[in-house]
Amino acid sequence: MGLNPTQSQILGTLFRADGRGLGLSALAEELGVRVPTVSDSVTALERKELVQKTVHPGDGRRMSVTLTRRGRSTAKKVSEWSSELLAALDVLPAEEQATLLASLVSVVGELATTGQIAPARTCVTCRFFGPSEHPGEALEHHCHFAGVAFGDGNLRVDCSDHEPAE
User: Fold this and answer.
1) What is the share, in percent, of the chain residues with pLDDT greater than 70?
2) Calpha distance 118→130 (Å, rounded)
3) pLDDT tens digits, residue range 42-90?
4) Which residues make Cβ contacts (< 8 Å) with residue 71, sequence separation at least 6?
5) Coil, helix or strand at residue 150
6) What contacts 20, CB < 8 A, 6 or more positions away?
7) What angle do CA 154, 106, 141 make, to 5 degrees?
8) Where are the alpha helices (DSSP H) in 2-134?
9) Positive or negative CA dihedral for 137, 138, 140, 144?
10) Do 141 and 101 contact (CB within 8 A), yes or no?
11) pTM of structure
């Protein structure tokens, strides 16, 4: 679609915002990049007529970025890329899927903890995560936010209730 990864992520973030405009700082924080990076990508997306910038009436320095009709359509397509990957993973037995997910979440958590990537909202980086609190049981982990036990197959990678662990 002629988009770089940052542009795709911006479209996806705006798509999930469901019509609410987001500022450059909010987009940068969400994506774990610097504001100038977002600004350059938003300018490119604006040239492609996928987003529009609106200057805040009371403060000319503040702006809001929203999807255009064409941008919403493109963002929907971009957000569906994972369906092919998920279909390929469906051929694995459930136990192998859970093991793969647990491994990936652990790697992402370690990379985030060591500052190699932007912090992710995964279970393993969350203050509510109780790893292996129920040893020997199928649902060995515990989420103290929701008050439930869960297994490796239910680890979250982008949890809206996430709060960073210290």
Assistant:
1) 98
2) 22
3) 999 999 999 999 988 877 778 899 999 999 999 988 887 777 788 888 8
4) 11, 14, 45, 49, 50, 51
5) strand
6) 66
7) 40
8) 5-16, 24-31, 35-47, 69-79, 82-89, 94-113
9) negative
10) no
11) 0.63
